[in-house]
Design a protein that fits this description.
Length: 836
């Protein structure tokens, strides 16, 4: 039975590295065995040499390999007689066992069974050990003179075994010297505290720890088989006290029974030899359900219930062994400003989503009356249409096999709209009742099971993702046409020139600001733009970072060094690292509501680094955003990262300084046409294209890079800017070399593939790079705006005549200038920004 326990334990690993070459072997578990994928198998699959990148290692093969190893005890690759062919993987896998170490044999990497002695296993009941401890504490028994105190052989033998038990528990050392601190702690403790002390000491013991670890993966085995497997392990790795021979059957039987009974008596194992989880989740969930309704009658600010759901519960779940903190984010909510009717606790795979507003994830949902709790496989309801939600629910139910889970959303949370929405978003669930809350073990096992279903669906989606690869010879015009059609296929309408403008702006410089009134689709525009190019939250190429009003420095984005000296990565740092390691793909970062905090405070490091871009070895590099000393490598701003910020201008936000405006194209989205439905009538489904970064990235950093081949175009742009600067001098807003260069690049990229005419490109540039700089209340602003109007229209501004922009050179800029002039006339102050 030991081999069954061993294989059960090894099924917890999804990746191992070979011992010599450190090659990664990815693992998927099936009913037939372990499917393994290596870098070389992936390459062979990609070039058509193999039908699949995954190779099956059957359970029969694994059992044969285990027999080879257990018989040899010290094995290198040549010792696996019955399991040849995948010995590198087998040795890497077996090295994960808690009683196996890596060593050398004949100059090669080898694995070896660790050895233990019978002295390290108990040979008497725990209560007899504790009786002897009581004698030591209260009768001052000196354990060095045990034979003198108990001269009768039978009594002495029992007391000697009990003394050995005290050594195992750490109350004495091998010289029988007392551990005074531990004894004092035990003596002063209550009954419950004494049990906790014994539990702690048992868990410290290496052999006990191995057994607990192995049994944690054996819940599907019957008790008798677990006992037999642990006994067989003892006979395999435990020798007698002199180290000469392995344990005999009778000795192994007795020592195993005593050891398991010890762990049962201190509640480390239950009656079926299943490890008993220390309660961490259950009491917190129960406290939430018992106290939430009362908490809702009290102010939310600084309430303990908020800390319980937002901090304590997420931390407890994050500590579970199957929650990879690098992969999962755990979040809890009781509402913002007001108490939520349905509080929740979500576990999100960050490659799928970082927000409960979108994507799919695992979430605990509390009913409004706090009598039921539901562990659900659900979706975000804020940014997902109802049709998409229903389709994905059916896809989950159809393609993921689930046991002990109800595949439906037939349950009741409450009458509120939120409650009904959460229910509708559910693909599958497990129901719990406050009056009959299951054990910690059951709750943890259910969560681990639901996480495995979540992972299975992610794997299914990755394998079945319908992603086209864009041909290398596509030009910018074809790319922008694809993006426009893709966004339209999602039911969102933007003019083609708006898509072209965003594309050119990002190509000119990978930092763009989208401004406009709320609800015009700024966030969706960026999301669909990125997705059309194959960049999604699922594959990590699109990241949405909500900006908080309390951000005051770069640590909120980049990370910080904690009190222990460990660097805690910020959300942007993780993106930069991934993009640095994957330079051929574009990575999009959306800073949502960017100006809720002062951009100059939290974004200043990035603004400076943007200007350090330079050519090096044929690529673009920057000064490090984070130096080697902080994160173990220089983190730069790679050329395949595109940052877009969305902004609203109202009383809750901060204005932009010229430092920020100089470094970004500012695109307005204020156009609203509520009655435009025609585009929805004949939509065709569009698939995303996996576009290489080289097709998006700019070709120029400095004007000298473009000058020789675009001399005339650059001079034409400069002539326009010289005239504009004459008007801007009156308010001290004239542009410098940086703005000139970036406008030149924008126009060059536009003309290269006939995306916009010269006048259209200059119109967008004036609107995005010049006009946002102008604001004020004195007459110089008035004069400047009138001068700019004349440049844009070839007409003198006349407030008494209705403007006609049909014959304007730069009609969009002229329209904006008229809006700014009228605002000046009405308010005595004007600005580019609506609402400021």
């Amino acid at each position: 039975m030991l081999e069954k326990l061993v294989i059960n334990y090894l099924e917890r690993f999804n990746v191992v590295q070979t011992l010599s070459s450190m090659q990664t072997n990815s693992i998927k578990i099936s009913d037939e065995g372990f499917y393994v994928e290596t870098d070389s198998s992936k390459i062979k699959f990609e070039v058509g040499e193999k039908e699949s990148s995954w190779e099956l290692i059957s359970y029969l093969y694994l059992y044969d390999a285990w027999n080879d190893f257990s018989n040899t005890r010290l094995a290198n690759s040549s010792d696996f007689v019955n399991a040849k062919g995948r010995t590198s993987f087998i040795m890497a896998l077996f090295s994960q066992l808690p009683f196996v170490s890596v060593t050398q044999k004949n100059g090669k990497k080898a694995i070896i069974l660790n050895q233990y002695l019978t002295d390290q296993l108990p040979e008497i009941n725990l209560n007899q050990v504790l009786e002897l401890l009581e004698e030591v504490i209260f009768k001052k028994l000196d354990l060095k003179f045990l034979k003198q105190r108990y001269p009768e052989d039978n009594v002495y033998r029992l007391k000697s075994r009990a003394r050995q038990g005290l050594r195992l528990l750490g109350f004495i050392n091998s010289e029988y010297v007392l551990n005074a601190d531990l004894i004092d702690e035990y003596r002063s403790g209550s009954g419950q505290n004494k049990s906790e002390i014994l539990k702690k000491q048992i868990k410290k013991h290496p052999y006990f720890s191995i057994i607990l670890d192995l049994l944690s993966s054996s819940s599907d085995l019957e008790k008798v088989y677990k006992f037999q497997a642990i006994k067989e392990l003892g006979m395999l790795i435990v020798k007698n006290s002199t180290g000469d021979n392995l344990m005999r059957d009778s000795v192994a039987d007795a020592r195993t029974r005593y050891m398991l009974s010890w762990m049962q008596e201190v509640d480390l194992l239950d009656e079926e030899l299943n490890p008993i989880m220390e309660e961490s989740i259950r009491p917190l969930l129960v406290r939430t359900m018992q106290g939430y309704l009362k908490a809702r009658t009290e102010p939310l600010t600084n309430h303990f219930m908020g800390k319980l759901v937002r901090t304590e519960l997420p931390e407890a779940i994050s500590r579970l062994p199957f929650i990879d903190r690098d992969m999962y984010s755990v979040k809890g909510s009781v509402g913002q400003g007001n108490w939520a009717t349905v509080p929740w606790l979500a576990i999100l795979n960050t490659k799928i989503t970082t927000s409960t507003q979108r994507g799919y994830y695992i979430v605990y949902l509390f009913s409004e009356n706090m009598k039921e709790l539901y562990l659900t496989f659900a979706q975000g309801i804020t940014e997902t249409s109802r049709n998409e939600m229903l389709q994905l629910n059916e896809e989950i139910r159809k393609n993921v096999e689930m046991n002990g889970v109800i595949k439906s959303n037939d349950y009741y949370l409450g009458e509120s709209a939120k409650a009904r929405g959460y229910v509708e978003s559910t693909a599958a669930f497990i129901r719990y009742s406050l009056d009959d809350m299951p054990s910690e073990n059951q709750l943890v096992n259910d969560l681990e099971k639901m996480i495995s279903y979540y992972e299975s669906f992610i794997e299914y989606k990755n394998e079945n993702r319908n992603e086209n690869v864009i041909p290398e010879n596509l030009d910018e015009k074809e790319i922008t046409e694809h993006v426009h059609e893709y966004i339209k296929s999602k039911g969102f309408y933007y003019k083609k020139e708006e898509v072209i403008n965003l594309f050119l702006s990002l190509k000119t410089k990978p930092f763009v600001i989208l401004s406009g009134i709320s609800g015009t689709g700024k966030t969706k525009m960026v999301q669909w733009f990125a997705e059309s190019m194959g960049a999604t939250e699922k594959n990590g190429q699109f990241t949405l970072i909500p900006v908080r009003p309390d951000w005051s420095d770069g640590s909120d984005l980049l990370g910080y060094v904690d009190i222990k000296g460990d660097f805690k990565k910020g959300p942007l740092t993780s993106v930069l690292e991934t993009a640095m390691d994957d330079p051929d793909k574009p990575y999009f970062v959306l800073l949502d509501e960017m100006n809720l905090a002062r951009v100059e405070y939290y974004f200043s490091d990035l603004l400076s680094v943007m200007e350090s871009r330079r050519w090096e070895n044929g690529g673009i590099v920057t000064t490090p955003v984070l130096p080697f000393e902080v994160d173990g490598r220089d983190i730069i701003l790679p050329s395949n990262v595109y940052i877009v910020g969305t902004v609203n201008m109202d009383e809750t936000t901060h204005p932009f300084s010229k430092k920020v405006l100089d470094r970004a194209n500012t695109i307005e989205f204020n156009r609203v046409q509520l009655d435009h439905f025609a585009f929805l009538e004949d939509l065709e489904e569009q698939e995303p294209l996996s576009i290489r970064n080289q097709l998006i990235a700019g070709d120029f950093l400095h004007l000298i890079d473009a000058y020789q081949e675009n001399m005339d175009l650059i001079k034409n742009v400069t002539d326009v800017l010289v005239n504009i600067n004459r008007q801007l001098e009156g308010v001290g807003a004239q542009v410098g070399y940086r703005v000139r260069d970036e406008i030149c690049f924008y126009v060059i990229y536009s003309e290269k593939d006939n995306l916009l005419t010269f006048e259209e490109a200059m119109d967008q540039s004036i609107l995005q790079k010049i006009l946002p700089r102008i604001s004020g209340s004195d007459e110089r602003v008035w004069d400047t705006l009138k001068g700019l109007y004349e440049i844009c229209t070839n007409q003198v501004y006349d407030g008494d005549v209705l403007p006609n922009f049909d014959n304007s050179i730069y009609p969009k800029s002229a329209q904006k200038i008229v809006d700014m002039i009228r605002r000046y006339q009405l308010d005595g102050f004007t600005s580019f920004w609506i609402g400021s």
